[in-house]
Amino acid sequence: METIKKWLEDATFPQDQRRPLVTLSYAQSLDGSLAVERGHRTLISGEESMRLTHLIRAQHDAILVGIGTVLSDNPQLTVRLSPGKSPRAVVLDSRLRIPLECNLLQRKDHRMIVFSGRGVEAGKQAALEKKGAVVLENEATPGQPINLKEALGALWEHGIRKLMVEGGAKVIASFLNERLVDRAVITIAPFWLGGLALIGQPLVQNLGISSPAVLPSIREPSVEILGSDIIIYGQVGEVQP
Ligand SMILES: NC(=O)c1ccc[n+]([C@@H]2O[C@H](COP(=O)([O-])OP(=O)(O)OC[C@H]3O[C@@H](n4cnc5c(N)ncnc54)[C@H](OP(=O)(O)O)[C@@H]3O)[C@@H](O)[C@H]2O)c1
Questions:
Q1: For residue 236, which of 63, 32, 45, 25 has the smallest C-alpha distance?
Q2: CA dist 14 to 10, 23, 70, Å?
Q3: Residue 70 Cα to ligand 1 middle (Å)
Q4: Ligand 1 lined by 72 (C-beta under 6 Å)
Q5: Can you give the pLDDT at residue 238?
Q6: Ligand 1 site, residue 196, Cβ cutoff 6 A
Q7: 146 lines ligand 1 (CB under 6 A)
Q8: 116, 139 in Cβ contact below 8 A?
Q9: From CA 23, how far away is CA 25, in angstroms rounded?
Q10: CB of 94 closer than 8 Å to CB of 141
Q11: Cα–chain-centroid distance for residue 95?
Q12: What's 86-105 look like in SS3?
């Protein structure tokens, strides 16, 4: 755990990009499943790797998830199993489906950020702001994916320098697909789940004859065993397959 902690602290920031450093971190089974099925909260990490997740959270200014994860897991995204401050929560939610009673809106330690689509219903926006949330309108229209580059720029303007991206499947795929991941810490639990996987998500859109595939990958990966889980981590770049 100490080696990963040290590596996390030695962050190299993206040069001249005015966007936060992005760390992708999630847990999967041996067959790449993130949950039993979409919409189901599934405990994949063991005790020690869960502690690592909280340690990673404490190292970041903000933690981002998609609305799918909020609706299915109702997470708090706080730091409870490690010393340190809880990061600010960020949710991608183009249609403002976030429930007013969700756990993230009950947190008193921060003003969560919700990225909505352009021209979304004003009443819901006002209700969220009354609950303490900051709603940032994105150029995407409701129902379209939030433009991630624009969102990262806005987070930078809000003082966020280190962003952890925790899920779910669609959000992970979007960040990888747009090559917006700087480093990754992935937990692999030693069982097969046969559930919701990144497989089938449009991960590599630029496959084709005229444009040779360039895959997002962990360069020079490091591996550690925590409890019975395998942790693979490192800087993310591209490789020619
Ligand atoms: N194993 C793990 O580590 C882990 C971690 C987190 C979650 N999960 C699991 O993942 C599942 C949820 O994943 P999910 O794929 O259904 O939902 P998700 O990735 O959490 O959220 C996807 C939703 O976010 C919104 N969104 C807005 N902009 C987006 C963009 N640029 N890219 C992607 N999504 C964008 C879209 O809804 P709108 O169109 O309404 O905006 C989209 O449907 C749950 O079962 C949860 O338990 C597992």
A1: 25
A2: 13, 12, 28
A3: 8
A4: yes
A5: 74
A6: yes
A7: yes
A8: no
A9: 6
A10: yes
A11: 19
A12: CCEEEEECCCCCCCCCCHHH
Q: Tokens 């340190």, residue?
A: 84
Burial (CB < 10 A; 0-12, 13-18, 19+), residue 186, is middle
CA-nearest of 46, 9, 23 to 228 is 46
Q: What separation in Å is there between the alpha carbon of 168 and the centre of ligand 1?
A: 4
The full DSSP string for 113-143 is EEEE-TT--HHHHHHHHHTTPEEEE-SSPTT
Hey, what are 203's tokens?
């991960």
Mutate to test the pocket of ligand 1, among 38, 72, 171, 203 (most ligand atoms within 8 A of CB): 171
Show the tokens assigned to 20. 């936060």
Å from CA of 169 to ligand 1 middle = 5
| Prediction pTM value | 0.95
Question: Domains in the chain and their CATH numbers?
Answer: 2-9+18-239 (3.40.430.10)
Longest C-alpha distance within the chain, in Å? Answer: 52
State how far the Cα of 21 lies from the Cα of 180, in Å rounded to an integer: 9
CB 128 within 8 A of CB 114: yes
pLDDT at residue 241 greater than cutoff 60: no
How many angstroms does the Cα of residue 183 sit away from the middle of ligand 1?
A: 19
Split at pLDDT 50, 70, 90, the class of 14 is confident
Confidence (pLDDT) at 73: 96
Give distance in angstroms: CA of 94 to centre of ligand 1: 12
Instruction: Collapse the DSSP code of 30 into the 3-class scheme (helix H, G, I; strand E, B; otherwise coil) and give the result.
Output: coil
Q: What is the pLDDT of residues 90-147, one digit of tens each?
A: 999 999 999 999 999 999 888 999 999 999 989 999 999 999 999 999 999 999 999 9
